[in-house]
Design brief:
Blueprint (H helix, E strand, L loop, with lengths): L1 H15 L7 E6 L8 E5 L2 H12 L16 E7 L5 E7 L5 E4 L3 E4 L2 H11 L6 H4 L15 H8 L5
Antiparallel strand pairs: 1-2, 1-3, 3-4, 4-5, 5-6
Helix pairs in contact: 2-3
């Protein structure tokens, strides 16, 4: 009977303790065009804190014109020991902004991307790892119709 009580006490204690979750989970998501999948969990709380600090220290985004973005980016989910969660979305095209708390928009910079890449095991100088091109895009050439269009709109020779 006493052993059964000890087993219940251990089970209750285990169920009351916070489950082990990674302090940071990063998932790359696609927008209008699919990009390569990427998912990483950061189990080192200090490393997750470095990314959080880099994100929090970014300057507020200013209204400006940005190149067209496809809607792809990274979803960062920070979880602390008290099970509070902060989610942030970081764009990988367009304005390259980080959005926290719904409306808190920040402009990313090289320092942020360096911390982000190093923490996740990516090469910070290899932009194809951080900002992958859409899948199925082999190159950004002019395409097979370019000579025909060039000839079509060229001035007529007499």
């Amino acid at each position: 009977m006493r052993a059964l009580g000890i087993v219940f006490a251990v089970l209750i204690g285990a169920s009351c303790s916070a489950p082990t979750t990674a302090p940071l989970r990063v998932v790359r998501f696609s927008g209008t065009h699919p990009v390569a999948e990427f998912e990483r969990s950061v189990t080192d709380a200090a490393a997750a804190q470095r990314i959080y600090d880099a994100l929090s220290s970014l300057p507020l985004a200013q209204s400006r014109w940005c190149a067209y973005g496809t809607g792809a980016g990274y979803q960062l989910t920070f979880t602390d020991t008290t099970r509070r969660t902060l989610e942030a979305t970081v764009e990988i095209a367009g304005c390259y902004e980080a959005v926290m708390h719904g409306s808190d928009r920040r402009s990313t910079n090289d320092a942020f991307w360096s911390v982000f890449a190093n923490t996740l095991g990516l090469e910070p100088w290899d932009s194809s790892q951080l900002f992958p091109p859409p899948l199925g895009v082999s190159g950004l050439g002019t395409g097979s119709r370019a000579p025909a269009l060039r000839d079509r709109f060229a001035p007529r020779r007499r």
